[in-house]
């Protein structure tokens, strides 16, 4: 097998948020089978300093700093009649880097991680093209539009329409289009008519997310309900606001000492303001979420809008904690009944309150959840089908550098 060119919208290291976790495990899997050339963007300054760590998983690396505001990207998108998602990642330096990588290396497979990076594909692709959409982003913007009003609704509908057109065009060029769940794959087929659509689910490192592993503990003073996630991501921010404002008061009516910890980097003003509410704690970024998960009486995932498989749910399960999730957050996860799922505010509050009232049942549910994750979501098993898609033998040795 020849070399692989791996294009990523965000540097896949460190694996500390959803897209970077999937990206890192994909990169590690591919680099064990072929020489991989990584081209990626960074939007956190510290992520420009991971060349040594990435050298173990790539033959060459180019990481470009991406800056610019969403407003500027929106203006460019309107002028060029493109989706904002593409305008935000349009960079001449990346085009030059892709061209150089293709000319210098025997690339026979291009792996594109996220639709934003597909704009860098050359017109005359001679290599095999694997397009990892992960989720159907255009469907996410369509859902945003349904809840918006005025000019923002128009803008979001425009984004959904143009992005879906682009996604369909890319899928027609791809040898395989990958999605993180069967539901996302089925939705994409239905809306675009695409074929050659495959499912490569997310996994989890159950050795790292293990209640018996070594990590700094977090003191728990009374019942603790924990949410973890990237807090500048709109569905997360909206989900914790919904929980803090509409669900937590119901739980505290039965358990007055219950606290809700919102754990994750980059909380905006609206999320930080939730800390003014009784029983709400906003931590911001923490060195290791495992301590908070281990301390949780209940882990919650109250997302109203969610696509694909939620890592936050898998992490709570792997840490043997009882998980309460919305229908949207649980969708796509083969949890085997080991998590509590609810649709309404009342149902989610009742599920969490009942687990707080019965620690033995909560522990039993958490232990069953960990067993389910170990059996179903180990990364090697989740990525096994990728070898057949790429046309390489499982566990094939990597070519010499």
Automatic annotation (TrEMBL):
<dbReference type="InterPro" id="IPR028098">
    <property type="entry name" value="Glyco_trans_4-like_N"/>
</dbReference>
<feature type="domain" description="Glycosyltransferase subfamily 4-like N-terminal">
    <location>
        <begin position="138"/>
        <end position="207"/>
    </location>
</feature>
<dbReference type="Pfam" id="PF13692">
    <property type="entry name" value="Glyco_trans_1_4"/>
</dbReference>
<dbReference type="InterPro" id="IPR017521">
    <property type="entry name" value="Sugar_tfrase_PEP-CTERM_Stp1"/>
</dbReference>
<dbReference type="Pfam" id="PF13439">
    <property type="entry name" value="Glyco_transf_4"/>
</dbReference>
<protein>
    <submittedName>
        <fullName>TIGR03087 family PEP-CTERM/XrtA system glycosyltransferase</fullName>
    </submittedName>
</protein>
């Amino acid at each position: 097998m020849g070399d692989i060119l791996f294009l990523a919208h965000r540097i896949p290291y460190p694996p500390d948020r959803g897209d970077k976790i999937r990206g890192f495990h994909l990169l590690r899997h591919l680099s064990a089978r072929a020489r991989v050339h990584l081209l990626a963007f960074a939007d956190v300054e510290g992520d420009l300093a991971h060349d040594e760590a990435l050298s173990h998983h790539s033959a060459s690396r180019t990481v470009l700093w991406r800056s610019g505001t969403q407003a500027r990207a929106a203006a460019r998108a309107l002028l060029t009649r493109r989706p904002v998602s593409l305008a935000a990642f349009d960079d001449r330096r990346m085009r030059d880097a892709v061209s150089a990588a293709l000319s210098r290396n025997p690339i026979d497979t291009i792996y594109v991680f996220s639709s934003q990076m597909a704009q860098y594909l050359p017109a005359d692709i001679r290599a095999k093209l694997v397009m990892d959409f992960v989720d159907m982003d255009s469907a996410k913007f369509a859902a945003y539009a349904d809840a918006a009003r005025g000019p923002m609704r128009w803008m979001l509908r425009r984004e959904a329409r143009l992005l879906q057109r682009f996604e369909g065009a890319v899928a027609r060029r791809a040898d395989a289009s990958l999605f993180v769940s069967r539901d996302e794959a089925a939705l994409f087929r239905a809306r675009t008519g695409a074929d050659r659509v495959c499912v490569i689910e997310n996994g989890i490192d159950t050795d790292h997310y293990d209640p018996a592993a070594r990590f700094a503990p977090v003191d728990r003073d009374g019942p603790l309900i924990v949410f973890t996630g990237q807090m500048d991501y709109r569905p997360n921010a909206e989900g914790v606001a919904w929980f803090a404002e509409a669900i937590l008061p119901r739980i505290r009516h039965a358990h007055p000492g219950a606290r809700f910890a919102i754990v994750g980097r980059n909380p905006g003003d609206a999320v930080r303001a939730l800390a003014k509410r009784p029983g709400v704690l906003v931590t911001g970024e923490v060195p290791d979420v495992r301590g908070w998960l281990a301390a949780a009486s209940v882990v919650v995932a109250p997302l109203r809008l969610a696509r694909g498989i939620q890592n936050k749910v898998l992490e709570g399960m792997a840490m043997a904690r009882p998980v309460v999730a919305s229908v949207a957050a649980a969708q796509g996860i083969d949890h085997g009944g080991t998590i509590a799922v609810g649709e309404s505010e009342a149902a989610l509050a009742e599920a969490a309150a009942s687990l707080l009232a019965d620690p033995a049942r909560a522990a039993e549910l958490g232990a069953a959840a960990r067993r389910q994750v170990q059996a179903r979501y180990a990364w090697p098993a989740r990525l096994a089908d990728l070898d057949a898609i790429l046309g390489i033998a499982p566990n094939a040795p990597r070519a010499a550098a």
